[in-house]
UniProtKB/TrEMBL annotation:
Family: Belongs to the major facilitator superfamily. Bcr/CmlA family.
SUPFAM superfamilies found in the cross-reference section: MFS general substrate transporter
Organism encoding this protein: Mucilaginibacter auburnensis
Superkingdom classification of source: Bacteria
Subcellular location: Cell membrane
The keyword DNA-binding appears for this protein: no
Any single Gene Ontology cellular-component annotation: plasma membrane
An example Gene Ontology molecular-function term: xenobiotic transmembrane transporter activity
Entry-linked Pfam families: MFS_1
Record's keyword annotation contains Transport: yes
GO-annotated biological processes: xenobiotic detoxification by transmembrane export across the plasma membrane
The name this protein goes by in its record: DHA1 family bicyclomycin/chloramphenicol resistance-like MFS transporter
């Protein structure tokens, strides 16, 4: 693969991966305006975010088998079409219940892009490059929290929140010719059954692999910190600290630098350390920093600047852990990479959905709920990693080699 083709391939896969984050981040600054427009509350509007996460989690399990059975592109085209139709529906939504339902449908369509891009990394690149490519995808992915909320804030202020969904629909339209350009490296598996029993057995075969479940679950629990931040940040910054929609967009953009920067520093660290070493260290730091954040929040120590600093550290840890945990969880699989990728995504998004509902449940005028969930999820992630490693007899490293158990 030439450098130009390599760059374009990673860019397109990154844009596919970023579709759902853009769908999440761009409308966050518009929460107060959406609530006012639809005669509801900000907490009710937040349920449209929860429904989106639920749709993403369920869609992951749907597209995995379809990608393995029919190839990568046909299910992706269908998903993008559903996403575009749902975006039009969100634009026309006249009440909050309709918006919540359509956001679910939009997520089911849009998650095809994320699952397909993750699977294509395993198809298009050697296994020893997977961690590096995942980190590059995060670089493109990281542009969404820098650009999306800022654009969303200005669009909402200058026009209205409805226009945000027009922009999202156009993004999906532009992705279609890019997908057509991508090479086909995976032949559809006509022997792959779409009957419930074989599909369940396929998922179970992936889930019971010690290396997969250890790194996928640890990575998903770590990733919960990001979901908690995304769902809780509108209330924390705009209602508790009283910043405006535009200012919130810039804070969100600035904090994303931690997530992006850490993922790129990860590429440098991979030259000297293994993915497993980096993930374990990053998780340890995440536990320490999130625990400090929780204690400080409980005693009212952190103001706006302190909260931003602690969230920044947490995002750095997640940005370092995620590409390594993803690469290690998918490393043992080749023929059923689509199933493994979808199950990985379902774990991440399922736990993420749960965390967003927890934030809504603990509707508190403090940062204690957000910091507490961040700390609890980080601690569980580290425990899963340390315990799970003991059950991995022959670990397939992200470099493609096999080493003995721990």
């Amino acid at each position: 693969m030439t450098k130009k083709k390599y760059f374009l391939t990673v860019l397109i896969l990154g844009c596919l991966t970023a579709l759902s984050p853009f769908s999440i981040d761009m409308y966050l600054p518009g929460f107060p305006d959406i609530a006012k427009s639809l005669n509801t509350t900000t907490a009710q509007v937040a349920l449209s975010l929860s429904s989106y996460f639920i749709g993403l989690a369920g869609g992951q399990l749907l597209y995995g088998p379809l990608l393995d059975r029919f190839g990568r592109k046909p299910p992706l085209y269908i998903g993008l079409a559903v996403y575009i139709a749902a975006s039009i529906g969100c634009f026309m939504a006249a009440d909050i219940n309709t918006l919540i339902i359509l956001r679910f449908v939009q997520a089911v369509g849009g998650c095809a892009a994320g699952v397909a891009s993750m699977t294509m990394v395993r198809d298009l690149f050697p296994v020893e490059e997977n961690a590096k490519v995942f980190a590059l995808l995060i670089l493109v992915l990281g542009a969404s929290p820098m650009v999306a909320p800022t654009v969303g804030g200005y669009v909402t202020a200058a026009f209205n929140w409805h226009l945000i969904f027009v922009i999202l629909g156009l993004m999906a339209v532009l992705l279609i010719p890019a997908v057509i350009w991508l090479p086909d490296t995976y032949q559809p598996n006509v022997n792959y059954s779409l009957k419930p029993s074989p599909i369940i057995n396929s998922f179970w075969g992936v889930a019971k692999t010690p290396q997969f479940i250890t790194y996928a679950l640890a990575g998903a629990l770590s990733f919960m910190g990001l979901f908690v931040y995304v769902s809780g940040s509108p209330m924390v910054f705009m209602e508790i600290f009283k910043v405006g929609a535009k200012t919130y967009g810039w804070i969100f953009a600035g904090l994303s630098i931690g997530f992006i920067g850490a993922s790129q520093v990860n590429n440098i660290l991979l030259k000297k350390f293994t993915s497993e070493q980096i993930a374990r260290t990053a998780l340890t730091v995440q536990v320490i920093s999130s625990t400090v954040f929780f204690i400080g929040s409980y005693y009212g120590i952190f103001g706006l600047a302190g909260t931003i600093a602690m969230v920044f550290i947490m995002l750095c840890c997640v940005g370092t852990t995620n590409p390594n945990a993803s690469a290690l969880s998918l490393a043992p699989f080749a023929t059923n990479a689509g199933t493994a990728s979808s199950l990985l995504g379902a774990l991440q998004l399922g736990l993420g959905s749960f965390s967003t509902m927890l934030i809504s449940y603990f509707n508190s005028p403090t940062t204690v709920p957000m910091s507490g969930i961040m700390a609890a999820s980080a601690i569980m992630a580290l425990v899963v990693l340390l315990v799970g490693r003991r059950f991995i007899k022959h670990q397939v490293k992200a470099t493609g080699t096999v080493v003995g158990g721990h």
